Amino acid sequence: MGAFHAYDIRGIYNVDFDKETAYKVGYFLPELLQTDKVLVGRDCRVSSDEIHEYLLKGITDAGADVHDIGLSTTPMVYFGTANYGFKASVQITASHNPAEYNGMKVSRENALPVGLDNGLGQIQEWIESGRPCVPAERRGQVKEMDIRRDYLDFLLKYKENWSGLKIAMDLSNGMATLFAKEIFGDAPSYIFDTMDGRFPNHEPNPLIPKNVEALQALVKKIGADIGVIYDGDADRVMFTDENGRFISPDLMIAVLGHHFLEKKGEKGIVLQDIRSSKAVGEYLAPMGAEMHTWKVGRAFAARKLRELDGVYGGELAGHYYFRDFFYSDSGLLASMLILNVVADMKRKGISLSSLISGIEKYQNSGEINFRIEDKQGAMDAVRDHFMENEKATAYMDFDGYRVEFPQWWFNIRPSNTEPYLRFICEASSKELLDEKVAEVRDILVSRFGAR
């Protein structure tokens, strides 16, 4: 059962899980979430049709009805769940993973995520214990449900004047192809804009630099003001500036402040994850933001934003969450709002690279992965080494550790799914950054055999 993770069910199909797992997830879900109807959508992966067939059979065998919205982005499922009052939904997707992967993202009432700690763990336990799946006397029905127009109308409310912008857009052969041209029209130069679950051009993960190269080349070729790239299920989006330089997604949390805090006057809490640059909060504070730092991942971020009634939030991985979108994330909505800001800035003579240079104050290592078995011991050793030798100005001990010092900070956290420690560091100078990264590498390699 290696497919059950902190945020979702995901793995290589027919290796980590199979159609029988999909059936059992479907069967147990109505009981878990105390409902007799489940909303279901799916992405375009080759294996999604079979998973869909068995998931639906499980749900209906349990006596619940399926409201099937067909091919969809993951945020479209969130919209359907919250907007129509469903208590349970499933999106069949493996998000940004390669084509051989698949999975299921489960939500409860109000599109709140169901993770390992609040439901998926229970389903995993029922499956592993061999709990029987006895078909109910009254078998549920499958009802096709078309929510596409409602969702598109919702998104189009946020469309402003982009007529002065030259846009390059990579749809990654994924689910953004469902809506992009109806939202953005013919003005952008599109690449990989046909839906193809084999992802023939690049893996649908914009965080891997090689997957962004085609977009960067297009930006330079056409002289675009901005490059936009989505992941496979369109819940994440990332950007390049007009020079083709990839923009660290956490910095876009700061850019969104121009829409929510400055233009709309929605002062209040802005959520960031524990890996976010200090520059984000420093840029947003004068606009009226109260920054709140929390754990990585939708299973934590969406719940926390709702709990705090935050205005919006974002993550280093390119997720952006919005109070106006049921506290959920949407790559398409995020890109629309970013384009609104970039278009406004261009009218003032400010390029995207200039805007980012006004935010980005520090040198950043990016996330570095260390393969290591004793993750807790290694994390403790790194924390103790620096806290014993330097005076910390801030300390956070959720999702690993984030320790801040006057001129630098680091976060070290365990991967939920692999034997990796993920380390990120930011400093006031390149020299200091290199020094601290080398120090950490020495501890992890010499004492814990990291590689």
How would you explain this protein's 3D organization?
The longest helix has 19 residues, at 430-448. The protein has helices at residues 19-32, 48-61, 74-83, 120-128, 148-156, 180-184, 213-222, 251-263, 278-284, 298-308, 331-347, 352-357, 375-389, 430-448; strands at residues 9-12, 37-42, 65-71, 88-92, 101-108, 142-144, 167-170, 189-191, 226-230, 237-240, 246-247, 268-273, 289-294, 312-314, 320-322, 328-329, 363-364, 368-371, 394-396, 401-404, 408-414, 420-427. The mean pLDDT is 96. The chain starts with 8 loop residues before the first strand and ends with a helix. α2 links the parallel β2 and β3. It is α/β, with parallel strands linked by helices and 451 residues long. It is 35% helix and 22% strand. Strands 1-5-4-2-3-6 form a 6-stranded mixed beta sheet, sandwiched between helices. Strands 17, 18, 19, 20, 21 and 22 form a 6-stranded antiparallel beta sheet that branches. The chain has a 5-stranded mixed beta sheet with strand order 8-7-9-10-11, sandwiched between helices. α1 crosses α4 (120-128).
Give me the count of strands.
22
Q: Which strand-content bin applies to the residues?
A: 15-25%
Structural class: alpha/beta
**Poorly predicted segments:** none
Helix content: 25-40%
Rounded to the nearest angstrom, the distance between the terminal CA atoms is: 27 Å
**What's the overall geometry?**
globular
GO molecular function: intramolecular phosphotransferase activity; magnesium ion binding
Protein name: Phosphomannomutase/phosphoglucomutase
Domain Alpha-D-phosphohexomutase alpha/beta/alpha: 3-117, 153-244, 249-362
Cofactor: Mg(2+)
